[in-house]
Specification:
single chain; 309 residues; alpha/beta; seven-stranded mixed sheet; two-stranded antiparallel ribbon; 13 helices; binds S-adenosylmethionine
Length: 309
């Protein structure tokens, strides 16, 4: 496995959003290699406190080592940020950070099976203790389920065609490795000069499904609001449009002074309630030119910032 090095994305912008200060309490729900966490702890020295978690046990170990100089000022647990409110006291935090997606060490370790740049087992689990792998899904789910995953989580236009072909192929040749699946998709939907690999969307969709990223994010946003103090800030860095839309819709719903049911906002049926959040920035913040030039993986990042009322 490569050394656990992950360059924190939009670190300056996240710091501006969270405004860490001595005595403040912060939560990092995606601690990864501890990059953002180190910056938060340094900026809140000497008395700031950090709660951290990650679904990836290797990340938790790496973060604890990376943050050794701040020993006594943090608690890091192995777990899903969806469960943050189960162990972080309610209304205790001045800032919560979620830096979604996968880390460079996860992407760059072939044995984790996130990428088809190198061959590895079709795994994709962030949490190695979870039973279901991407291979289980690809070799076990029906056409409808696979097509739904590829379409909804990957925005794949040929979702059904890919799902049908996979189901037709797997009885003879079960899908075991990343390159095997990527090669199969490429033969099905050749590049025709496109720069991105035809399997990119299918891999993103499988990763989202294997790790229940949509369900975790919805529950994680709820948990973040619970653990924030009034005036505390929630900063979320997303890497694709599905995540960003979820964050935007969540923020919009919580910033309204009314609720509605049934998915349609009919003025006569609105139920008044107090807004819980306000937007700090109307639009998503994007990485600056210098970061984009230095770290190509930041190119799809977007930061949204809300404040608890
Ligand atoms: C982009 S990396 C974070 C990097 C980190 N901010 C840093 O500076 O080192 C995303 C991390 O979030 C973790 N992760 C993704 N979804 C999670 C969830 N629902 N709960 C906890 N950790 C999660 C991944 O395992 C990965 O380590």
């Amino acid at each position: 496995m490569p050394e656990f090095v992950h360059k924190p994305v939009m670190a300056t912008e996240a710091l501006d959003a969270l405004r860490p200060c001595p005595g403040g309490r912060y939560a990092d729900g995606t601690i990864g290699g501890g990059g953002h966490a180190a910056i938060i702890l340094a900026a809140s020295s000497p008395t700031g406190w950090l709660f951290g978690c990650d679904r990836d046990g290797a990340a938790v170990e790496a973060a604890r080592a990376q943050l050794a100089e701040f020993a006594g000022r943090f608690e890091i647990r192995h777990g899903n940020f969806a469960e943050l409110a189960d162990w972080v006291p309610a209304a205790s935090c001045d800032g919560v950070l979620l830096d979604l997606g996968v880390s460079s060490p996860q992407l760059d370790s072939p044995e984790r099976g996130f990428s088809f740049q190198q061959d590895g087992p079709l795994d994709m689990r962030m949490d190695a203790q979870q039973p279901m792998t991407a291979a289980d899904l690809v070799n076990g789910a029906g056409v409808e389920e696979l097509a739904g995953i590829f379409g909804e989580f990957g925005g794949e236009r040929k979702a059904r065609k890919c799902a049908k072909a996979i189901v037709g192929e797997r009885d003879r040749h079960p899908f075991k490795t990343t390159r095997q699946l990527a090669g199969f998709i490429e033969r099905l939907a050749p590049r025709h000069g496109r720069k991105t690999h035809p399997a990119t969307k299918i891999f993103q969709a499988l990763r989202i499904a294997v790790n229940d990223e949509v369900g975790s994010l919805k529950r994680g946003l709820e948990a973040a609001v619970k653990i924030l103090k009034p005036g505390g800030r929630l900063a979320v860095i997303t890497f694709h449009s599905l995540e960003d839309r979820l964050v935007k819709d969540f923020g919009r719903a919580r910033a309204r002074d009314y609720a509605f049911t049934g998915g349609v906002d009919v003025p006569e049926l609105r139920e008044p309630r107090l807004p819980e959040l306000k937007w700090i920035t109307r639009k998503a913040i994007k990485p600056g030119a210098a970061e984009l030039a230095e770290n190509p993986r930041s190119r799809s990042a977007q930061l949204r910032v809300m404040e608890k009322i």
